[in-house]
Design brief:
Elements (H helix, E strand, L loop, with lengths): L5 E6 L3 H13 L5 E7 L14 H4 L18 E5 L3 E5 L4 E4 L4 E3 L2 E4 L3 E3 L12 E3 L3 H14 L4 E5 L3 H12 L3 E6 L11 H13 L3 E4 L3 E6 L8 E5 L4 E4 L1 E4 L3 E3 L2 H6 L13
Parallel strand pairs: 1-2, 1-7, 2-3, 9-16, 10-11, 10-16, 11-12
Antiparallel strand pairs: 4-5, 5-6, 8-17, 13-14, 14-15
Length: about 270
């Protein structure tokens, strides 16, 4: 055993965290670093950018990043289903959600981002989802199948990911609606003309588009049938639906860093040298 071996703790096992571990292990020819990875998800690193390809075949292995289990590498300890709960910067320890206190020589924060959910009344109902992980898609799939063919699903957010989410609902046999606060779909990427063409294209494949309106509230209703929530829009229109998917952007996942006393940027995220 290398008596001078050091420990690097990596908090987060997304695409960036995995790439860091790959780079460290490829450069550490002398085996000086033991790597401990805390992964909040129960699945090892996968291609989150290609998440929509999961819809249809429902095979998580197709998205798995090569080498994400580090088979045969005794210097990598991957702990799935455990996230970093607390960091003691003075003691140089990380406490995981399982209660393990792990000492480190180097700490790598690869916590990424989380989906932003607007604080509209009803956003926390069980019929509400986000579109971020394989677990999220499994939950959406289960809700869609329980609702049955033709049931309505609402996506809050008409950006690229929102349109992907709406198409996923369509592929699941639902009647999808897209709500976009701005006056056109994908407002950050296309101008008014492009937005009009895009709206026609997605409407032609079965998406219902509502632009220039916001989501006022989501209310449970007690009626027979699949659509058991009402989505109230800012123009007083209502959509009865079986599920709601929020795709309103992301925010830096910096709560752990902030609670630990690390310096946070003005717009979120951890400041580095």
């Amino acid at each position: 055993m290398n008596s001078t071996r050091k420990t690097a703790v990596v908090v987060g096992h997304g695409m960036v965290g995995h790439r860091f571990v790959e780079a460290l292990r490829s450069r550490d020819e002398a085996g000086q670093w033991q790597v401990i990875i805390l992964s909040e998800e129960k699945l090892p690193a996968y291609d989150r950018v290609g998440l929509s390809y999961y819809v249809g075949n429902w095979n998580a292995d197709d998205l798995a990043l090569p080498g994400n289990m580090y088979d045969g590498d005794d210097l990598v300890d991957l702990r799935l289903g455990q996230r970093g709960e607390a960091i003691d910067l003075e003691a140089k320890t990380v406490t995981s959600t399982s209660g393990d206190v792990i000492s480190y020589d180097a700490l790598v924060m690869a916590t990424g981002s989380y989906p932003f959910v607007p604080p509209v009344p009803g956003h926390d109902l069980p019929e509400c989802f986000v579109y971020r992980t394989i677990d999220d898609l499994d939950g959406i799939r289960a809700a869609a199948e329980a609702a049955g063919p033709g049931a309505h699903g609402v996506v809050v957010g008409g950006g690229l990911l929102g349109l992907e989410a709406a198409n996923a609902l369509r592929l699941l046999g639902m009647t999808p609606h897209v709500i976009e606060y701005n006056g056109r779909l994908m407002p950050a990427q296309v101008d008014a003309g492009g937005g009009a063409i895009l709206e026609k294209l997605v409407t032609d494949i079965g998406l219902n588009v509502h632009t220039g309106v916001g989501t006022a509230k989501i209310v449970s209703i007690e009626e027979e049938g699949a659509d058991n929530v009402t989505v109230h829009l800012s123009d007083d229109a209502e959509i009865k639906a079986s599920l709601v998917v929020f795709s309103a952007g992301v925010r830096p996942q910096d709560a752990l860093a902030k609670a630990s006393g690390l310096e946070i940027g003005a717009r979120g995220g951890i400041l580095t040298d």
